[in-house]
């Protein structure tokens, strides 16, 4: 009596025939859910990550023995993945770093299993999947304080691709041999897809974190050994040709100024004038720039487009109309840093002294000066209006235009401290003030573990590709940059002291976008109401549907309004007062 032959096991899938497609589809579905909900709540992402790890582990545990494959490898890998998934739920209240570590362990374990447990004829597929897994593990580990979004994308992509491979193996393995597509080619194509996606994530990570090519200030920004004590003295100047609008000429300038305590300092800047100077003296626009960073290489005068900041289109129109633009870099941007970021008196002095220094160029300038500023520059413009009468009576102002100004610093720090842009601004403040303010120690101000990230942001400018790198770094911080108790202590008091809440004795235009995510409209309205109650005349204009940057775009209605308002100041027309 013969022995009944055992039917050969399908080599298309080592899983039980009914379990293979179910588990594969589950992995694919969970991966797709992670990709779709990578920005969901922490609890949702943790549950999806845990379920995905358990599904991947189950797929390993259910694999049946195969020739030339060590079953123990699959069991060990499956147990590691399942345990990692369970721990993700058990430790859901722990930091994101714990979740990152669990995901990375699961991915590396899978890579080891693919390399050590694969059959010889499946080795190319195994190598591709292993490299993809290790690459994704590197993505989740390299990003500092990896955000849940990145975890969702990395693990989601891996689950989708490995799930599809599992389903493909099951389906192809059960098809009649004569009807089977080229199995190895399809499996290798799927593995290659996983490899391409993972490598793309790695390359994207490198590109994002690299930022711009480092440009160091040249010798122009280094002052001589002997510098005049008097503020507003032009130390040197040279023609500037980069980014100069048609019909205009420009210079870089280096000049003396003082900080808020009256100590001598040196600042750089730029001057933009019409090619045809005309016969009459030219009025002056003192333009205070917005946030560009806190290190010397972030000076606007070093940028490819030094006159594009803020209301750049309006500035070009004013220069074409015969005005001269004077733009300070502020102290510490261009010159030795770091820059005293959002320190009101320091930036106001630099703005006023730039106007004084520009009078030494081959230009015929009037004493008619209007100050503009956007964002940080709006903060500087208001401070310039507050201090001009005492600090620089020889620079009489006709008006101050503050566009989305950082007007209430405590409210600004509180309102956006949980957002990526708020964390970036907080990092700039912390890094800058730790260098300039006695008693502020960076290590004591920032959240434990965030010191390296703050240092990285400090070295990045808020321009070009550096913006992406800075925001990417800021987005990886799961907590606020500054400790909560700090805002209630000395730093909070310093923020209040540097808020421009003093009287400006000239007409003030304050413009705000209604959808601004950084300088929140409600906070701006509250600031205006407070200034109005204090007797300050303000022409407050809120622009519906515009955010922080679109407010000063060339197509913004503010462009025409700003030009008209500025011309009206020189014409001596009465200024509107929305407080009345």
List the defining traits of the structure above.
single chain, 580 residues, alpha/beta, nine-stranded mixed sheet, 12% strand, elongated, disordered N terminus
Describe, in short, the structure shown:
The protein is an alpha/beta fold and 580 residues long. The chain has 19 helices and 9 strands.
Number of helices: 19
Distance between the termini: 110 Å
Structural class, please?
alpha/beta
Helix content: 40-55%
Number of E strands: 9
Shape: elongated
Q: List unreliable stretches of 5+ residues.
A: 1-15, 177-181
Strand and helix order: HHHHHHHEEEEHEHEHEHHHHHHHEHEH
Largest sheet: 9 strands, mixed
The average pLDDT value, as a whole number, equals 83
Strand-residue proportion? 5-15%
Q: Whole-number radius of gyration?
A: 31 Å
Write out the strand line-up for the largest beta sheet, numbering strands in chain order: 1-2-3-5-4-6-7-8-9
């Amino acid at each position: 009596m013969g022995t009944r032959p055992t039917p050969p096991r399908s080599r298309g899938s080592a899983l039980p025939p009914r379990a293979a497609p179910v588990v594969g589809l589950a992995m694919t579905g969970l991966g797709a859910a992670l990709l779709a909900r990578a920005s969901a709540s922490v609890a949702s992402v943790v549950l999806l990550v845990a379920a995905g790890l358990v599904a991947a582990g189950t797929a390993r545990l259910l694999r049946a023995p195969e020739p030339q494959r060590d079953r123990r490898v699959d069991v060990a890998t499956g147990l590691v993945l399942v345990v990692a998934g369970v721990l993700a739920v058990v430790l859901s209240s722990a930091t994101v770093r714990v979740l990152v570590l669990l995901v990375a362990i699961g991915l590396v374990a899978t890579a080891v299993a693919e390399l050590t447990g694969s059959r010889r004829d499946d080795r190319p597929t195994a190598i591709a999947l292993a490299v993809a897994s290790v690459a994704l593990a590197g993505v989740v580990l390299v990003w500092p304080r990896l955000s849940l979004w990145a975890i969702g994308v990395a693990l989601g992509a891996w689950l989708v691709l490995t799930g599809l491979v599992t389903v493909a193996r099951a389906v192809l393995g059960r098809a009649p041999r004569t009807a089977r597509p080229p199995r190895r080619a399809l499996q290798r194509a799927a593995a290659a897809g996983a490899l391409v996606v993972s490598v793309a994530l790695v390359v994207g990570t490198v590109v994002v974190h690299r930022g711009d090519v480092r440009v160091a200030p040249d010798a122009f920004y280094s002052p001589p050994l002997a510098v005049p004590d008097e503020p507003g003295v032009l130390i040197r100047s040279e023609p500037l040709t980069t980014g100069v609008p048609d019909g205009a000429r420009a210079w870089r300038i280096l000049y003396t100024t003082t900080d808020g305590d009256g100590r001598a300092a040196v600042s750089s800047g730029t001057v933009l004038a019409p090619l045809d100077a005309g016969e009459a003296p030219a009025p002056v626009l003192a333009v205070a720039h917005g946030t560009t960073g806190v290190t010397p290489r972030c000076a606007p005068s070093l940028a490819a487009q030094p006159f594009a900041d803020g209301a750049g289109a309006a500035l070009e129109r004013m220069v074409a109309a015969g005005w001269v633009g004077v733009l300070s870099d502020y102290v510490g941007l261009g010159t030795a840093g770091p820059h005293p970021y959002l320190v009101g008196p320091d930036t106001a002095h630099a703005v006023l002294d730039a106007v004084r220094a520009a009078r030494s160029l081959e230009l015929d300038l009037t004493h008619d000066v209007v100050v503009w500023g956007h964002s940080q520059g709006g903060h500087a413009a208001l401070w310039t209006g507050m201090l001009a009468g005492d600090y620089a009576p020889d620079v009489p102002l006709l008006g101050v235009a503050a566009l989305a100004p950082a007007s209430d610093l405590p409210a600004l720090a509180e309102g956006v401290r949980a957002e990526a842009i708020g964390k970036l601004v907080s990092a700039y403040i912390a890094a800058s003030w730790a260098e300039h303010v006695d008693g502020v120690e960076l290590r004591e101000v920032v959240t434990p573990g965030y010191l390296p990230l703050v240092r990285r942001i400090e070295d990045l400018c808020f321009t070009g590709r550096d913006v992406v790198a800075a925001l990417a770094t800021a987005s990886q911080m799961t907590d606020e940059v500054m400790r909560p108790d700090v805002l209630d202590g000395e730093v909070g008091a310093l923020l209040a002291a540097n808020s421009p809440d003093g009287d400006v004795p000239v007409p003030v235009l304050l413009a705000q976008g209604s959808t601004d995510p950084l300088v929140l409209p409600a906070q701006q309205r509250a600031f205006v109401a407070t200034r109005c109650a204090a007797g300050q005349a303000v022409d407050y204009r809120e622009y519906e549907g515009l955010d922080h940057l679109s407010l000063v775009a060339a197509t913004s209605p503010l462009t025409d309004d700003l030009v008209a308002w500025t011309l009206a100041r020189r014409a001596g027309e009465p200024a509107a007062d929305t407080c009345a």
